[in-house]
Sequence to fold (128 residues):
Amino acid sequence: MTFDHIPSIRCELHVQVVDNTAGGAQVAGEIRLPLRQYVDQNDHDEWHVLPPTLKQTLVEGSSVRAVPATLHLVVRFTHAKVWLTLVLTREIAKATKRRQQLLMELRAYIQAHLTRVLTILDPPKQTI
Fold:
């Protein structure tokens, strides 16, 4: 599957913070974050102050909120190689544990079989 670059498409993350304390759900702030800034695949830890919405500006007028809505955005990238290594390590650990269980079962089977064969070949002596 191939993807062609289309320069007219802009990818962005639209985040809305909803305030549920005023009785009903009201949008306390919203922000659009362009995803292109996260292409560098570095970890990002950012705080964003969300500007008041148009509805808040019209309804609240001059009595704007004392504390604006803020958004803490943490972006972490986990590469597939690291994930694959973790998955393979877990699978190897499971297989090793299963192998140990099978070896113990095999040893128990061989021991039981040897005991049975030895009792057949060397019956206990009866005293008269």
Q: What stands out?
A: Residues 79-122 form one domain. The mean pLDDT is 79. DSSP finds two helices and four strands in the chain.
